[in-house]
Amino acid sequence: MVGEEGAFVLGWDEVLTEEELSVTLKVLCMSEEEFKEYKEQDGWEEDSEEEENSALSNEALSRLQTPCKKLLHDSVLLTLESYTSDLKAEQDLLNNKEAYEKLSRREQQALHVRYGQKRILHQLLELVR
């Protein structure tokens, strides 16, 4: 469901792999009975046009049903725990010119990527509260 990478791609304003996330949330938030029924009806390919055309914007994420929000919230927390430092530590390093300049170019770029990823994840946490 989540493609070769096994991850969803989030942007600042919306989910970039919205179809995968939408289907995954829908399935994971179903009861066992709902899942059996959905599967028997070939629900994988017969979603309504409204669902197919609904982008998972930040606004849409904040309106998800509570079980889906909790699932996303817990997933984001697990992802953040996989990092060796938190958002504040990254921000402090970016703001410390002397320490930042001691990093190699590659380390600086990695820092910017990690910081951006963590900011997006923290934004998602706020949206699914």
Keywords:
8 helices, 129 residues, set domain protein methyltransferase, domain 2
**Element-by-element helix/strand order:** HHHHHHHH
Helical segment count:
8
- Give the C-alpha Rg: 18 Å
- Give the strand content: under 5%
Task: Calculate the mean pLDDT score and round it.
Answer: 86
CATH-assigned homologous superfamily: Rubisco LSMT, substrate-binding domain
Query: How widely separated are the two ends?
Result: 25 Å
Gross geometry = elongated
Subcellular location: Nucleus
Organism: Bucorvus abyssinicus
GO biological process, one term: methylation
Protein name: N-lysine methyltransferase SETD6
Description:
With 129 residues, this protein is mostly helical. The protein has one domain: set domain protein methyltransferase, domain 2 (Alpha-Beta Complex), CATH 3.90.1420.10. It is built from 8 helices and no strands. It has helices at 18-28, 32-40, 49-53, 58-62, 66-81, 87-95, 97-102, 105-127.
Question: How is this structure best summarized?
Answer:
With 129 residues, this protein is an all-alpha fold.
What topology does this entry show?
Elements: H1 18-28, H2 32-40, H3 49-53, H4 58-62, H5 66-81, H6 87-95, H7 97-102, H8 105-127
Helix pairs in contact: 5-8, 6-8
